[in-house]
Every structure is written in C-alpha cells, then in structure tokens.
Specification:
With 613 residues, the protein is α+β, with helices and mostly antiparallel strands. It has 4 domains: 209 residues, Histidine kinase-like ATPase, C-terminal domain (Heat Shock Protein 90, 2-Layer Sandwich); 141 residues, Ribosomal Protein S5, domain 2; 85 residues, Rossmann fold, CATH 3.40.50; 130 residues, Heat shock protein 90, C-terminal domain (Four Helix Bundle (Hemerythrin (Met), subunit A), Up-down Bundle), CATH 1.20.120. It has 19 helices and 23 strands. Helix 7 packs antiparallel against helix 8, helix 17 runs antiparallel to helix 18 and helix 18 crosses helix 19. The structure holds adenosine-5'-diphosphate and magnesium ion. Adenosine-5'-diphosphate (ADP) binds next to helix 2, helix 3 and helix 4.
Length: 613
Amino acid sequence: MSKEKHHFQAEIEQVLNIVINSLYTDKEIFVRELVSNAADALEKLRFLQTSGQAIQQPDLELKISVTTDETAKTITIADSGIGMTNTELVENLGTIAHSGSRAFLKRLGEDKKVDASLIGQFGVGFYSAFMVAGSVTVQTRSCRPDEPGWTWISTGAGGYEIETAADLPRGTKVVLQLKEDAAEFAKDFTLERIIKKYSSFVPFPIELNGKTLNTVRALWARNKNEIKEEEYNEFYKYIGHDQEAALYRLHFSADAPLAIQALLFVPIKNWESMGLSRTEPEVNLYCRKVLIQAKSKDLFPEWLRFLRGVVDSEDLPLNISRESMQDTSLMAKLNKVLTSRFIKFLDEQANKDATLYQTFYGTYNRFLKEGVVSDFTHRADLAKLLRFETSALPAGQLTSLADYVKRMPTDQKDIYYLLAPRREAAEASPYYEVFQSRKYEVLFLSDPWDEFVMDHLREFDSKNLRSAEKADLNLGDDQAKAAEALSASEAEALAKWMKEVLGTKVSDVKVSQRLVGSPTVVTDPDQFMTASMRKLMKNMHQEKQPAVTQVLEINTRHGLIHKLNQMRQTDAALAAKVAGQMLDNAQVAAGLLEDPRDMIQRLNELLEQLMVK
Ligand code: ADP
Ligand code: MG
C-alpha cells in the first residue's frame, strides 16, 4: 500500500521548532514523556477491559518494554496499550487541537466514574522525542477488534508519512533514531538511571532490555486503609533514603482548591543539627505518578526542609513549561495548601500524643522557630506549635502558649518570659521574684533563638509577649509589708548617694517595687534591649559600646541595703566599695558581667578588710 504524506498542523510545526531548538532544559525528559504516554495507553486499555469492552489480543501482558541498541543508536519504547487507528494517529500526533486523553474521555461520554488519573491535560510531550532523535517511527495497532496496524514516520520538519503495517501486536512501539550528539541515551545504564529517576512509580512493569526496573508501588495514590505499616516503612526507606523508620507520617489527599495526594515523612533524626550541612528538601513532585521535579525547592517553605516524601498533583500542567516550573502561581498555591495542612497535622499530633510531640519538638524546634521568624503567612499558626519550660510545670515538662493563656489569672494581662541559660538560673533570678510573689506564670526560655522568636511573634491570642526583665510590675501588698522598708526620704537619699558613687556605670538608681529576696537588680528601660540583646550588641560593636541605659534598682527592705545606708554615714569609702560590688552582683545575676577582673580585685580588698576586723 502506498504512503500517505501529511503535513503537521501549523501549531505543531511551531512546537517542533521550539523543541528541536531545545526548549527543554534537560534532554533526558523525553524518556519520561514517552514512558508516560505508554503508561497512559495501558491505563486506558485497563479501563476498557474492566468496563467490559471487546479488545483484540486480550491476553497480552500489560507492560512497557524499553530496548536499546548502542550500535544502531536506537531506543525502542513499546507498550501493549490501546494503540491508535489511522485517524487517531493523524489526530493525536499531527494536530494540537485534540489532546488524546481529552478525546478519549469524550468518547467514553461524560461518565463521572472515569478514573480521574486519566484526565491528561493539553500536552505536547510526544514531540520531546525530536530533541534527541533525527527520525521517529511509531508502529501502532488499535485495541479495537479488527483494526489493522500502522507505521507513522517523521523526521520532524516536513511532516510525516503513514502506511499500513502487517502483523503488529496490539499497542504502540516508538523507535527513536538518535542524533549523533544524543547517542549516549542508547546506553543501557544511562537509560536505566533516567527511567528510575522519573518513572519508578509508573503502575505498570517497565522492562529495560529484558530486566524489570520499577518494583516500588506509588503508595500515595492508594487508599490509606488498605496500606500496611510495613509497606509505608518500605516506601519511606526507598524514598527517604533512611534506614530508620520515620518519626511522623502524613498521608492525605485533597480535591480543592487543588487535587493533591501527598505522603510526607519526618525523619527520626535531624541531620542538620547533628553537625552536618544544611538539609536539602527531599520531597519530590509528581503528576499522576510521573516525576516532575525531584527534591522540589518550591513545594514547602524553607523551614520545612526536613520533610521527605512525595506530592502528586494532577493539576500540574502536563505541558512544556513543567520542566522549568515557571507556573509559579500554581506552585505558590500548592505550597500554601501543603504548608497549612502540615502545620495542622503537627497540631493534631501534639494533641494526640504529647510525649511523641515533645520528641519531635526536641529534634525540630529550631525549624519551627525559623518559621516563626521568617514565614509571616504561617506565623500565627506556628506559634501554637511552640513549647517552653515554664514556672507552672515541673522541670522538663513543656507548655504551649495556649495552655499558658488558659492558666492566666484574670488580673494578668500579658504573657511573660524570662531568658536564662538554665531553668535553675531563671528561678534564682531577681527578675523572677515579683512574678513568684504575684503567682504569675513565667516561661523560661533557654534557647538563644527564643528571644528572636518572641521579638517576631510579639503577641499570642491578643496578649502581648513581654520579657520579665521589662515587666513593670509591683509586688503584691502582702509581700510589700513583709519586711520593714527604709522610709521614703531615706530611700531617696540612699539612691541619690549610690548614683553619685557609681557614676556613669548606671543611668540611674531607683527604689525597686519588684524585689523580694535580692538586694539589687539591673533593669533596662530601653524597650528593645534585653540582657542577651545587649550582650549581642556588645560583641558586635567591640570598640563603640552603646550608651549605658541600665538602671540599678534597690530593695529597701533588704538587710544589706539597710546596712549600706548606715555605713555610708560611718565609713563612706567602704560603703562605696560595697555599692560597687552590689552593682556587679546584679550584673552577674543578669548575665551581663563580661570582664570580672575589676570585680575580683575589689572582692579581694573587701575580704581583706573583713579579716582585719
Ligand atoms: P499528552 O500525552 O499530554 O496527551 P503527548 O504529546 O504526549 O500529549 O501525546 C499526544 C497523544 O498521542 C496522546 O494523548 C495519545 O492520544 C497519543 N499517544 C502518544 N503516545 C501513545 C501511545 N504510546 N499509545 C497510544 N497513544 C499514544
Ligand atoms: Mg504525553
């Protein structure tokens, strides 16, 4: 029979031009496209079979066979799928007006039961073959009974020819005659690597030169209730490259606003905190079980980079732009949906099993904190996931901010926190005294990052987060009366004298309303300056120290202050020395004294004087 000559539709010519001039950044994706087409054709066949339609050669195994010939420089991708009739060949491979998958759906009528995974979108994947092949031959035979076989051949530009082919098995075979510069693709191991990379989860066996490559099933696309624990574990080992079982697993699907199937894992170990380099995200993006982007950087915000697993979305365009993922608005949408879902998941886990959540939190809290600081969109939700040591609970037991708020007495307006390297230090801190006396709960923050977290968060549940150092609180009345205070005039005179003696080391000396057991405390009225912040500033501006804004507060009910007040009249020199020491003690308590040499010198002098007596 004679050859029919055809021209490509004008748009196809254009597409081919773009493809041949390599619009695809990665030539290897032609393998993915052709294997996907084969898988689509098989899926359609399976559908016809299960819906009881008559097909030819019903006993053929459903599989994809890839063969390479290094000497001839050819690659052959064959499937036993639905194949194509002459008309379909022209329509599907010669025109862009119909996407084959769409036409397929139409033919089946508006049947709502049609598997959604068949809904391909407008695609031009087939033409990617011309990136690497000088000529492409398609031999195909439709599954419909009595349809003959056809050979379609094209060298790209200049159209294609179709002629009949005798004795073809059902399905489609695509033969690529590789260009010189693409000859490497005919190597068995090259092709094996590419198929494994993109098509490991294709739901039909893929054989490469007789060897079956894909053995892992796409668990994420299956019903949760039908999946065994071991299957999840096996899958995680494979996709997460981890020998240990995961700490958390989230398997979910959504239809709106995007069709998503996701299977995400939190590794039991946080490799980043173990001194290894920054963790790279290991969530792969799939569209209908075919890899679109490995280790996608755009699926989740950076602070979730510890996640591993798979996201599959049918809504991703199966078109030429997918390689570069330029459809950023879609990615942003995906990102938002996934991130919100994962945060919700963590919140659920925290409520379900607090102990396990505390393990997670111990390992990953820095990531959540990074999120609070850097991710404005999710900040408020992330705040619910934070946990802290607190004065209200025994050591080692952490609280959420929400639980703190529940415990707040009615007269307490703000949420208070105290930064200290250890819990014991916080409890012994003079800043804590006023809270203890008023029975106000204080969060004890020991992670240096916590201060930045609080700075960015600023509030929770419409309550201000306030540093205990800055709190403008007075002692309850009972405490205030517990010990005799100096009279107001005496106290004022003492404070004035101390300021004179201490000079520029403090900006002021004041009578404190917040101390119980400590004689002195330093406070800093500067809104944004907490002790640790000041320390940081000091380290940053080595030479130019910021101006002293610290105030020394004195507890006029404390015995030491009473004695100091007497001594300044009898032995002013010694009293001045003691005052200096008391300031240093307060600095030490605040974690502010950097260079103790002067202090030790003075202390030695004081000890000497003590022993003379
Ligand atoms: P898409 O797959 O997105 O529809 P392609 O350019 O990859 O776009 O393929 C175009 C059409 O050609 C397909 O929709 C399908 O109808 C047909 N086709 C391609 N490869 C095969 C195949 N192996 N078996 C049957 N039909 C195929
Ligand atoms: Mg395709």
